[in-house]
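lol so apparently i was supposed to do this last week
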Amino acid sequence: MTVSLVKFDGSLDSPRRAIELCQGFKKLGRNDRVLIKPNNCFRHRIMPPYGMVTTSKTIDRVVQLLLEHGCKDISIGEGAIINIFDELEPYTKRGFKGTGIEKIEKKYGIKLIDFNQGPFHELDLGGIKVEVSRAALDSDFLINVPVLKTHFQTKVSLGFKNLKGCLSKDSKKRFHISKRLDTLICLLNEAINSDLVIIDGIYMLEKGPETLVGVAHRKDLIIASPDIFECDVVGATILGIDPAQVDYLKEFAQRHGRSFDITAIQIKGEDIDSLKEQLEWRFEPDEELLTPAKVTGISVPHPGQTLCSACGATLAFALSVFGKDNPGMDFGGAALYYGLGLKPERGKEEGTRPSPTKVFLYGDCAIKSNKGLQNVNNEEDIQSLEVFLIEGCPPTLTKTLLALMKTLLNKPRMFRMLLLRAIKLIGIRLGIYQEIFPRWERYRSKEFDKTHF
Ligand code: SF4
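anyway here it is w/ iron/sulfur cluster bound
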């Protein structure tokens, strides 16, 4: 099949050309039930959306082209991660509103589907039972519209990874705690067929998946293909990440006899060599979230793949706030462990990190997988270790912040932070205060255009 590479110029012509070049609508019937799956999986409304979620501009253009084609039954579906920022409104709905997709519903009279509301169909993926949205399985033509971004666990998050949003919330968690994330992403893409993939590359994200750590860049590119494997191979190559090192693509290639030879892929439109970047996908959470605020003495070792975005996003947000409110402070040796993969042992941490004296087990997974550490404190090397549990699946933002404040701050400082946070929260709710973290200053530049959302 063909992968098209087309520069995005803001007009309807660029997505039209991208779809035409790869014959993306060749198999699309006018009476087909069409489902568009953007990446709108999580984002707090104050977080810059660039490179993190699909632009509503792209979705709007795709809907226009579908209507031109004569399609009548068009839906947009997503299942956002829930229960992370203590807010009550359903997350998918809030995501649709926050990124402007809700306006598309009204403009064209199409349907928005919140996958989290079900119904689901149970599938067995390599012995693991998961619930997949029926709307995704039952559509006649699924258009997968991810963002061009890197990911700190899976290296890239493109077409393959975007389908994780079709799972129920418990199944999303199961993908991580099964310790078989890459295999399950591969198998999910065998169960759900993407008929057309359109990678929204108006922006791309380095150190993704979110903009608390991630750095967005303007790219103005559309990558499209009816072949999800080739589309992701081209997308990863443009990001500067070897697709053969992306484990779920590697597994898919082995299972289906596919090749990573980019010269064997028919690419139409722009020259791929002129588009290649060298973006970083790796990062250490503490270095990115606390070092900029000159906060020292707290380590947050990389959790590996056994961490859901729900825990990752909440903790990233909490650490960003905590660092911002306590700049230049040294907390003397605390460590936060999350996900299933890490076993804190005093004096036995890897690399150059100092041994912690206080350990936070963050989230039910870390608590369950470190039961021994909570009960037995008589070994010499962990004798002086204090262990604090932050329960939840995931813990809420408020609970996380309170636990950090109570444990790491003295009383006057804690009350000061509580008071300031309460005032800021009220300001945010009333729309008169905007929280800005230092790395978000870049989004004031004109290349980041709010009207794309
Ligand atoms: S505790 Fe966190 S990492 Fe574990 S299943 Fe719940 S959300 Fe996922």
